[in-house]
Amino acid sequence: MDFKGICVVEVSGNSCANCISLMPILNKIINSRDDCNLYHIEVDENNMDIVNKYEIDRVPTILVLKDNKEIARARGFYPEEILTIWLDDKINQAKGNK
Predict the structure, then answer these.
(1) Quick one: angle between helices 17-31 and 80-94, nearest 10?
(2) What is the model's pTM?
(3) What percent of the chain has pLDDT over 70?
(4) Using one digit for the tens of pLDDT, what is the confidence trace for 12-57?
(5) Distance, CA of 75 to CA of 5 (rounded, Å)
(6) What is the pLDDT of residue 98?
(7) b/e per residue, 1-34, with b = 16+ CB within 10 A?
(8) Closest CA to 91 of 32, 47, 43
(9) In sequence order, what are the beta bridge partners of 62?
(10) C-alpha to C-alpha distance for 68 and 45, rounded to whole angstroms
(11) How far apart are CA 85 and CA 49, in angstroms?
């Protein structure tokens, strides 16, 4: 998969409760923005290239990418308020704004 522009990638497992809880929060945060795209990657045999490329060692993992280059990552579940602040900062960093 090729991630063009600024992307937020949520990597999850199919039986991971934190992953299931995290996706609606990420959808809400990213849908309020027009400067990045959200992708959901389920860890399975079909996505091992992405898991290996970005060295995913636990789920959930959130990646902020710009043109396939990792800008930031977070592992585990975070409340919406904290995740919003973190994503705003990392997306601004990806855009070149400090």
Answers:
(1) 60
(2) 0.92
(3) 98
(4) 998 899 999 999 999 999 999 989 999 999 999 999 999 999 999 9
(5) 22
(6) 56
(7) eebeebbbbbbbeeebeebeebeebbeebbeeee
(8) 32
(9) 10, 74
(10) 21
(11) 30
